[in-house]
Amino acid sequence: MAVASVLASFNSYGQGVVAFVNSSGTRVRFSDSAAAAYGTTNGAPLPGGGAFLAGLYYAAGEDPGMDPGDLGMLNTMSPNTGAPFSSLSPGTFNGGNRTTPATTAPGARAWFQVRVWEAAFGSTYEQAFNAPAMSATGGQVRKAIVGIGNRFNMVTGVGTGGSIVSGGFQPFAANVVPEPSIIALAVVGMAGLLVIRRRRS
Fold first, then answer.
1. Using alpha carbons only, what angle is made at residue 94 by residues 123 and 66, rounded to the nearest 5 degrees?
2. Can you tell me the distance from the alpha carbon of 185 to that of 116, in angstroms, rounded to the nearest whole number?
3. Which of 22, 47, 48, 130 is the most buried (most CB within 10 A)?
């Protein structure tokens, strides 16, 4: 029993620790279009009560100049479960201390990103993003409301978490996932613009 306790302590202190909590100054809000789809006020903060969850994504990297991009971020923090938004302070979440994989030592730098999603569409950001449209709030058939924050490089804590707010986390807005037809039209439009530019040059 004592050995297991020592090992657990060693493992938690052998990894960087981050306090996964934001503040009233860094609330996550609905974009105007998402607010209309959800049936709330434009720019309102995300409600509490488990309707929305926040996840902390991670990528190893000491160099603040080597941005891994969204695709380089992984939800490998421990625990990697979604943190619910607060009913007392909408737009804020408190997921407690999260530990990095062993690729980041305590006190070392790493990259982080916050992603949020509508819990009714899935237990992870990826599930919600890829979920089919369904009858949601107000009976409207739509895709999930999700959001993805800035990537920031911060120093992790030793034993206790370094705050993501002081580490560079910025407030952001959540949007309705666009329908595939809209994405396809955007891609076709961009391809058309590239063809026109090549012909002119």
1. 80
2. 26
3. 22
Q: Residue 188's domain spans which residues?
A: 2-200
Token code pair at residue 10: 């060693």
Residue 187 and residue 8: Cα distance in Å, rounded?
Answer: 49
Which distant-in-sequence residues (6+ apart) come within 8 Å of 8 by Cβ? none
Per-residue tokens: 174: 């959540």
Structural domain total, the chain? 1
Closest CA to 32 of 173, 147, 139: 173
Residue corresponding to tokens 């058309």: 192
pLDDT digits (tens, 9 = 90+) for 57-93: 999 999 999 999 999 999 999 999 999 999 999 999 9
Token readout for 18 is 């981050």
One-character DSSP codes across 6-45: HHHHHHHHTS-EEEEE--GGG--EE-HHHHHHHTS-TTPB
Residue tagged 């902390």 (tokens): 56
d(CA 144, CA 130): 8
Q: Which of 23, 143, 145 is nearest to 90 (CA)?
A: 23
